[in-house]
Amino acid sequence: MPTHPIVDAHIHLWDTGAHPWYPRLPEFAAALGEPGLAGNFLPADYDKATAGVTVNGLVHVSATTARHAYLAETAWVDGLAPSLDRPVAIIGTVDPTLPVPELLAHLETQSAATRFRGIRVFQGLSPNSPAADAIASWLQDRDAVFDLVAHPGNMLDWIDFLAGYPDLRVVLEHLGLPESTAPDHRTAWSNALSLAAKETPWLCKLSGLGMICPDLTWPTLEYWLETSVQLWGWHRLVFASNMPVDSAAGTYTDLLTTIDRAVTADATDHEAELFYTATASTTYALSPLA
Questions:
Q1: How would you class 104 by CB atoms within 10 Å of its CB: exposed for 0-12, middle for 13-18, buried for 19 or more?
Q2: Contact at 8 Å (CB) between 151 and 179?
């Protein structure tokens, strides 16, 4: 297990009993083979999952699927954050189908939350679209973070588009979303991830493997971890658990044990501190007052 404290750069909290914000969550959970993921996941559940691990900061990422529920979710997480008893950053979202003036108004509304740091758009956002231009410009002007959802099929398009926003802080989500563990998908993923690593200054979240891998053991994750480290280096990778989603493949302890095997074998102490804590703390402006 890591000897460094951790900043977990990607978690989801949801109270599905109280808030009808996640209508597609049961279908998503069933597709992962874990229908229980559609149940509540609240601060006490996160603390239980991470028992024995020192987690000094969190980045909450919106997972709403009900139309425009993200506005209420951002305010809810901002109010819930003190109960987490550690610095919290919020990555919201926005509806890319909105007319640009309404889209910008939704961004402004969320930015009123104390812990708001940026957005991601999980589906429906295309590079070189009016929505993408509006989002990238708004985020760049405010020095906010774009948690980028890109996959091997559109990675080059995103690289080309975001080159037009050189001051935008971009964090690639979930290792560029490999489609599966099939050999052809692994090749497409490694090619796309290599291109992003070489052609951009982006950071990259080492997360999401629980969505495609059957378990979180070393033999299963070795290829993905070693390839990612080789391409990005520890100074550009960021630890993120994607809990509770990645718990479909194993526990938080399983994930940390496997990842820390790679860290212990390859990273210097300074690199380990960057990967586990410092890079995310800086990127998402986490501080004791956040």
A1: middle
A2: yes
